[in-house]
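Supplementary Methods, section 5.1.

A reviewer requested that the exact input to the structure prediction be made available. We therefore reproduce it here, unchanged from the version used in the analyses.
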Amino acid sequence: MNTGKDIRTATFALAVAAVIATTSVLAEPGGHARDPSMFASQRIERMIRTLDLTSEQQNEIRTILEEQRARELQQRQDVQARIDAVLTPEQRARIEERRDSRMERHLDGLAERLDLSEDQVARVRSMMESDDADSEMTRDEIREQIKTVLTEDQLQRFESRGPGSKRGGAGEPCESGKMRGGPAF
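The structure derived from this sequence is encoded token-by-token as follows.
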């Protein structure tokens, strides 16, 4: 038993987790772990109401926010690549296992809450896996894809637990007031 090595490994893992958590939170506009495209739309709508923006101003601000989102996404990818370069293949595999486990838990909860058929579960799993491959896909885009496989009743239940529900989404407070979301480990 090498407790010194175990402590160093645990400390390193915590440091990596802190970097990823900080990067993912700070990379979002306003420092919130929200869907960036939703944030930009909400911000523009708020500015339109309070500042009486012209169409030209709206377009310019939208462009500024989209450019910022692209820079933040690139920065997040760069940080992740640098971290991946430091980790061993075994450590990267553990991160992937945890990510897969989290996705399965989310999918199981969705299947139970919406009473999804096996076919629907398979289709949603495929969508979620393609999201892992396409890290630029927003939560709203994933939600829209999922909606395409739901019945009307399932769609109503799905919508009732969207952003703003009591449970909250990633980065939003849940009933206990604690924040949800965070890194895969």
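The chain has two domains: 1-87, 89-185. These observations are discussed further in the main text.
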